[in-house]
Amino acid sequence: MLNKFTNLMLATTTETPVPIWVQQSFPIIKIVLAILISICAIFMIVAVLAQKGEANGSASITGTQDTFYNRNKGTSLQGVIKKLTVIDAILLLVFCIAFLILNAIYVG
Question: What is the pTM (predicted TM-score) of this model?
Fold first, then answer.
């Protein structure tokens, strides 16, 4: 099954050989993806550690309070960090899937 997938993705048949530039570019792409995954992972750790906790003591028991901060949470620094964390998580997932597919296609 994997061999059929590899042949389909690389178009490796007896009629059309894979160009040399494609074979030489796979290791470079793998290194770039590994670096991007590492950067995203480090940023994820820093972003999660920079966030404050959602609940603070009695507010979690009694419910949320209607304050200026709660109404404008998305525009504050904490809201921006939270959005960046979500974007970073999506990028990390995409880079990991791309790295997995690249490893399934080219093992070398």
Answer: 0.65
